[in-house]
Amino acid sequence: xxxxxxxxxxxxxxxxxxxxxxxxxxxxxxxxxxxxxxxxxxxxxxxxxxxxxxxxxxxxxxxxxxxxxxxxxxxxxxxxxxxxxxxxxxxxxxxxxxxxxxxxxxxxxxxxxxxxxxxxxxxxxxxxxxxxxxxxxxxxxxxxxxxxxxxxxxxxxxxxxxxxxxxxxxxxxxxxxxxxxxxxxxxxxxxxxxxxxxxxxxxxxxxxxxxxxxxxxxxxxxxxxxxxxxxxxxxxxxxxxxxxxxxxxxxxxxxxxxxxxxxxxxxxxxxxxxxxxxxxxxxxxxxxxxxxxxxxxxxxxxxxxxxxxxxxxxxxxxxxxxxxxxxxxxxxxxxxxxxxxxxxxxxxxxxxxxxxxxxxxxxxxxxxxxxxxxxxxxxxxxxxxxxxxxxxxxxxxxxxxxxxx
Length: 405
Description:
- With 405 residues, the protein is an all-alpha fold.
- The protein is built from 15 helices and no strands.
- The chain has one domain (17-205, 218-404): Growth Hormone, Chain: A (Up-down Bundle).
- It has helices at 17-38, 44-51, 55-76, 80-83, 85-105, 109-141, 148-175, 182-200, 226-246, 250-255, 263-279, 288-309, 312-340, 346-371, 377-404.
- Residues 1-14 have low confidence and may be disordered.
């Protein structure tokens, strides 16, 4: 079987303005899709009040979303390597739009669970596909340039979108009518525009002469060090765990233990954590992983102090610092894996990395949610900080061992 390289090699298209415009359009599409995934974050306290469910139920709703992401990554995250980037992005965005309609039409708990699962399915298809698409468009537009622009824009679009969603939703829920409807209406309009943008941009994948047999996602490393990949996967796991805390239980902790029930504040806190992570995409590359580990650890310590003292400002400062460190870790992980991936395996290799990342989004947050059934929210948050610090130490040891080899 002959499988052609997925990246278009047409010299007449390389360096074209069309690919430059497409690069920024796909970055915007990626940002919008990620923003949609975090819109419910500042709305969870409203859902809790209206439907009367607990913080543990919020954890389950969040976990359902992450399960949808993982299932999608396993089943479809790598398919764009041979099916084409646009053929995956359009149905993925349409799946998110369907979730938006469900949020509007069925605001009760069952509808919320189904809508979050559909959101996860869409995100699982988008993350690896959009990241690979951005790299290919960047290469087509600037064939002689390095990857610095891609590294910064891809991670910033991901984290910037995750930051923007809660801020928009929190502001609309605070000041606009129908707080459980208006944010989704706005996002549905943006998703429709995103679909139009994807249809308009050039494809970067040439379909193989013989379509390969379908198989679920697998973790395969054909180039580079397995230890380096494991370090990148552990860094992604840790960074997503930090972000997951602020997209699930942190708004409830603000409203409950810290007695700050503002919807705008709930969205702003999540925005702060993700925005600092996105801002760190411009950080220099030298010793990036080490600086990310240190910043994340320091932020978790400050966050734990704020939780213990039930004080807002240390909580915010710790979240911002931990978010900055997690952003650096995420960028380091993306850079490592992209550098190891063969061109025709980019989607598959990135899907594997995001699979580890979203497992980090699921497991620690579920652990905190379960812990709140037996201990107070403060104790559960302190346990989370302790487990994350131990994991960061493990990543540092593994990274040092890999460098020594």
